What we know:
By secondary structure, the protein is α/β, with parallel strands linked by helices. It has six helices and nine strands, in the order βαββαβαββαβαβαβ. It has helices spanning 9-23, 60-67, 88-94, 131-137, 151-155, 170-178, and strands at 2-5, 28-31, 52-55, 77-78, 100-103, 125-128, 145-148, 160-164, 196-200.
Amino acid sequence: MKTVITDAPLAEAAERISEILEKKPDAVIALEGVKELGGLFEMLGDKCSAARIFAVTDRSGVLREILSGSTVKEENITCLTDENMAHYDGLIASAGGIDIAVIGIGVNARIGYNEIATPFDSLTHRQKLTTKTKNELAIAGEEVFGLTMGIKTIAESRNIILVAIGGSRSEAIYKMLYARTDSTVPAAFLQVPLNVTVIADRDAAEKL
């Protein structure tokens, strides 16, 4: 796992995504709908026009907001829904697998909606969300479930970029890098894949 601390995390992420798109313009990108990634795909310009996007979670509204200023074609965006959840991993496999996953990290060190106690071998599934996650994402309801790629689905990506912005992520970043690889810290499972890059601003990296 590589860690990059920078004042311009989105620009750093865009540069690394561009390198992959230059080699494979129709790369399959797993993209998480988190507001911290807003503006990222605008930086890619026409390079991402043929990219194929698979949503990491069911936050399709935020995902489309992230992609709204980009050149990604609508027909190349696959959102995660109740209707396709059961065969979502099959859709990814049919597309050739994920070339690069671009994700954030929750304040409780979740990735996607994979909360504490999610096993490493989890595939796309329905996840009960914790109160901390619901508060972080401003989701209403006492018992709220979300759809998410599993940890194994994300970890099998050929490349993974995790972007962390702000001091609220500093504890989660520390745990991700130094905790044991067990289900008490879901993001720590990213210590297992070989090609993972964590791009953090200075506030997110303050505990390192």
